[in-house]
Every structure is written in C-alpha cells, then in structure tokens.
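Q: What would this complex look like in 3D?
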Amino acid sequence: QLQLQESGPGLVKPSETLSLTCTVSGGSIISSIYYWGWIRQPPGKGLEWIGTIHYSGVTFYNPSLKSRGTISVDTSKNQFSLKLTSVTAADTAVYYCARFRGYTYGYGDFWGQGTLVTVSS
Amino acid sequence: QSVLTQPPSVSGAPGQRVTISCTGSSSNIGASYDVHWYQHLPGAAPKLLIYGDSNRPSGVPDRFSGSKSGTSASLAITGLQAEDEADYYCQSYDNSLSGFVFGTGTKVTVL
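A: Here is my prediction, written as structure tokens for the whole assembly.
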C-alpha cells in the first residue's frame, strides 16, 4: 500500500523559507502517469492546491503563490519537496502531500496525514 | 481563492438523502474537465470518494454517487449515516489557472 509522509519544521519565522519533504513508500515515485502534489489547508478554511511535479521534473504552480513556491523531486530517495519563500502568517496551514493520477484530469488517490506549519516570530 | 463554489453546510437525519453542489465555470467544469470528490475528517488525510465525475474507488460504499451537468457537479449521499459527518470537497482542473482547483467545502451534519 502506498504511503506518503510529510516532514519538516512545524514553526517558521515570518519572511523566512518554509521547507517540507514528502517521503513516498510502498511504490516508486518514477511513473509516467502519476504526478506528486502539495496542498494546504489554513485554519478554518478549505483546501488550496499549491503545486505539482512529475518525476521528470515538470512542475505546475498555483499562480496565487506569486512565484514564491518551488517543488523539486529526488528520485533516488523517492521524495519530493516544497520550498515556500518569504512566508507570512497567511501561510500558516496544514500542508498535505498527495499522489495525483494524471494531470488535467487528475485526482488525488493517496494523501499524507498532513503536517501543521505555523508562521510566527 | 476557490473557483468552485459549494454550500457551506448541509444536514440530514440518518437514512435520508443529501446532495452537495459544486458550481464552476467555463474554464473548469464547463470545459468538460473531470470532477472529483473527497471526504475530509478532522485530523485525517482527505479521502477520495468519487473520481472522473461518477466513479467510486474500491471500498467506497455505493451510497455515494456523483454526477455532472454543464458547469456544475453534485455529490449525493443516500442512507445517511453518522460516520458520514465530515467536510466534503470537489476538485477539478482550471485551464485559466493551468492547475487544480478545489471547492469551498461543505460540512455535512447528521442530525
């Protein structure tokens, strides 16, 4: 059974960079049909797509991030990562990683449990 | 910044049928992109309920069904059970954003 696990600091200071890693186990990140994504949920709000990466390195980002986000993949470690620069309190959220089957018609079939990241000094 | 609109809440008694709407536009649902639905319990990972408008993954009860027409989609839950109390989100692709979009979310309460 595929499993995804988010890891990274739970507290980040304003203006600094948020860094999270998603480790995939029970399956390979190398697949032509799957994409790997980050989604977040601010407290009391809904889900927001952050971005998606294919193992080949092709990436897609939510324009609302205004180029602050970077997603990368390390196939040797079966991991993909998120970096979000210049964070503010508005970036406080539970961050989820997920596997998406396909892209334009894609859906998230496996998700991590999520990790809370708080932006505060 | 959700571009898919859902009612904030719906409720029903055990055994009843409830529906959740997901209204989009010509750049997402109306452009014939698939709609998918997730169930989200507090503190848990979102769970895929419906994919490709109306398909259920293995293990999802047939009490859950999805449909789509025009620029909207719907999730129906029949035979409502206490365990169905959760938040539900629709998701699609938007070609003006070139990315995934989620609905605003609907809280289902079992009376």
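A: To summarize the key features: The CA atoms of residues 46 and 65 of chain A lie 16 Å apart. Chain A has a mean pLDDT of 96.
Q: Very helpful, thank you.
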